[in-house]
Amino acid sequence: MSVANARPGYKKTKEGVIPADWEVVPLGRIAKFSSGALINVASLHEQSSDYPVPVFGGNGISGYTRDALMSGPTIIVGRVGQKCGMVHFSEGPAWITDNALYPVHFQREAHPQFLALALQHVRLNDVRNRNDLPLVTQSILDAVRIAWPPEISEQRAIAAALGDVDSLIRSLDQLIAKKRDLKQAAMQQLLTGKQRLPGFDGEWREGQLGDVIEKLVGGGTPSRSNPAYWGNEIQWATVKDIATFNPHWTQEAITRQGLKNSSSNLIPAGTLITSTRMALGKAIIYEVDVAINQDLKALFPKQNVSVKYLYYWLEHNTRMIGELGNGSTVKGISISDLKGIPFLLAPIPEQSAIATVLSDMDAEITALEQRRDKTRALKQGMMQELLTGRIRLI
After folding, report:
1. d(Cα 131, Cα 127) in Å, to the nearest integer?
2. Is the per-residue pLDDT at 95 higher than 90?
3. Which of 97, 212, 226, 293 is the most exposed place for a label (fewest CB within 10 A)?
4. pLDDT tens, 1-28?
5. Which whole-number Å values give the CA distances from 385 to 158, 325, 381, in the listed order?
6. DSSP E strand stretches across 159-227
7. Entry pTM
């Protein structure tokens, strides 16, 4: 776009079209940044009323202390490490370690929260030093160019609008955390029989997990050296897919020829799948047929056990199952140890009722997470419009 093509009241710069009364300014002409101070890692504490001051390092908040390096609002930029270039804003007080940078002097009138948002918008991860040790130096910061509204009132208005969205995101995060805690408490009560749902009073039977499993089916990996075994015909699940779980998709896929010429097995949709090597006790249920590798096992329960109930039972007992694992580097659990885990068997109608309660809680959490993610996307769109001046608030 040429200058002649810019709409009235705007001008073309190397960084894009901005309002005519804005300018593009190197950060070094706005604020001078310096590294924080050393702090004894052993002195860090969990958040509490006794230790209210967050300690910011290269990866964000690393703990809490009584002492404050900054008493008021400030910007923190990760200086070193894999997450260097991340920008945080603290209302204050805060302690900044020597793994982060913060402004020690402003060259011109600037609203700190606006400047933090502007730095987030320019994505410092894209301009950081790309050596073996990722690094953001003071000279790198000095050269970063920012679209700058000269009026502090406009900076304040932009920061307030985006701050309101941040507040909504924080409130959703807090609500999601609360709902997850409530679900954990519900699992502790309902899956152990400590609390019974209305209308249920029958006895539960004590036994072992193996008593309620009809069969376990393992998997395998087709030869990586044969490209004919790999394609998009059959979804192929591994432990990696637990962390990025999508009920319709896996990170890799194999061909029918690959399935036929390996020890993998095709697992029907709706089957409970768990890990016996790494991520022990984690469970997933796909809504499509999938093949699995050797680290996963498909559990086919007997008719007196609900699949969804067993799914929540595994989720509730993940830590205990993990502690049963063996191995110095990668933990695994044997089939015999898995089958030998104590298991309380509720009557099938009560299992279904418990699974429904927990499934409804999951649905509520998922809906809140989707709302939060949409709000984050909205914020990104607002940042693009407001921090480039495409939309003016005053």
Report:
1. 12
2. yes
3. 226
4. 444 567 899 999 988 999 999 999 999 9
5. 10, 51, 6
6. 205-208, 213-217
7. 0.85
Residue 82 phi, psi (nearest 5): -65, -25
Q: Do the beta carbons of residue 66 and residue 51 sit within 8 Å?
A: yes
Measured distance CA(245)–CA(77) in Å, rounded: 32
Identify the CATH number of the domain defined by range 23-148.
3.90.220.20
Q: Please say whether the beta carbons of 55 and 64 come within 8 A.
A: yes
Residue type, 265: N
* SS3 category, 308: helix
User: In DSSP terms, which residues pair with 372 in a beta bridge?
Assistant: none
Please report the pLDDT score of residue 128 as a whole number. 60
**Taking a C-beta distance cutoff of 8 angstroms, is the pair 186, 358 a contact?**
yes
Q: How many CB atoms lie within 10 A of CB 284?
A: 20
CA 191 to chain CA centroid, nearest Å? 27
Closest alpha carbon to 330 in 299, 283, 294, 292: 294
List the chain domain ranges: 23-148, 205-345
Contacts of 114 (CB under 8 A, 6+ apart): 155, 156, 158, 159
Rounded distance between C-alpha atoms, residue 56 and residue 46, angstroms: 13
3-state SS, residue 90: strand
Diameter over CA atoms, the chain: 82
Burial class of residue 79, CB neighbours in 10 A (0-12, 13-18, 19+): buried
Number of Cβ within a 10 Å radius of residue 250: 21
Could you give the CA distance from residue 190 to residue 296 in angstroms, rounded to a whole number?
Answer: 27
Instruction: Give residue 301's identity as a one-letter amino acid code.
Output: P
pLDDT mean over 32-38: 94
328 Cβ neighbours under 8 A, 6+ residues apart: none
Here the tokens at position 340 are 């030998």
Q: Nearest to residue 385, comparing CAs of 16, 3, 98, 5?
A: 16
User: Which of 41, 47, 37 lies closest to 68 in space, CA to CA?
Assistant: 37
| Model confidence pLDDT, tens digit, residues 173-216 | 999 999 999 999 999 999 999 999 999 988 999 999 999 999 99
CATH architecture of 205-345: Alpha-Beta Complex (3.90)
The owner of tokens 């409130």 is 171
Sign of CA dihedral 159, 161, 164, 168: negative
**Distance (Å, whole) CA 158 – CA 114:** 7
Residue percentage of the chain with pLDDT more than 70: 96
Q: Are 254 and 234 in contact (CB under 8 A)?
A: yes
